[in-house]
Amino acid sequence: xxxxxxxxxxxxxxxxxxxxxxxxxxxxxxxxxxxxxxxxxxxxxxxxxxxxxxxxxxxxxxxxxxxxxxxxxxxxxxxxxxxxxxxxxxxxxxxxxxxxxxxxxxxxxxxxxxxxxxxxxxxxxxxxxxxxxxxxxxxxxxxxxxxxxxxxxxxxxxxxxxxxxxxxxxxxxxxxxxxxxxxxxxxxxxxxxxxxxxxxxxxxxxxxxxxxxxxxxxxxxxxxxxxxxxxxx
Length: 233
Fold this sequence. Notes:
Blueprint: H1 22-27, E1 30-35, E2 41-45, E3 54-57, E4 60-64, E5 69-75, E6 78-81, E7 86-87, E8 91-98, E9 103-105, H2 110-122, E10 133-138, E11 144-148, E12 155-166, E13 171-176, E14 193-195, E15 202-206, H3 208-215, H4 219-232
């Protein structure tokens, strides 16, 4: 995948939030995604129960411009690389997990590395803007987005249909605008889809297990849901 050279020295410019140079951030952007189709998971722990490990299904694997390959999961209000998970309250990355063979590992599977590197070389593209679309993957883990309704008194759960990778490396969840649906089922690439994270009403991501409990009005799930959303509002 080709990128344009701006002619500027980005090695001396530091991002205030990440404390990394813009050159480092540019090299860490994602240039290709591959869906996780074998049920591999991310393991994480949190400070409230440090002796227990939790698991979350991996959405996909991402190839960075610097050659690194990492798993990606919807987390809080963004999609994040598993090794970057370092939230004292909500979670620390502890590794990857294959439930089929009960094995923990810490590097991306070699077959995913080969798949991503081969695809990135084959689908070499030229883009004029960082917002240009590179890929759109269907959501395979039942991710839901939590939206605030227009009157701000209700919260809405919406299924994520797909995930879009842009040339600048940003990844967006695509959700349905029900007023623009012309045919069903709604599939990736449909004109009724829009970017969840770009919406002012977007709050949070949930995987389907929690979303289903919330829909069924499970008391514990509703209580946890309220606490988490209150922290984002």
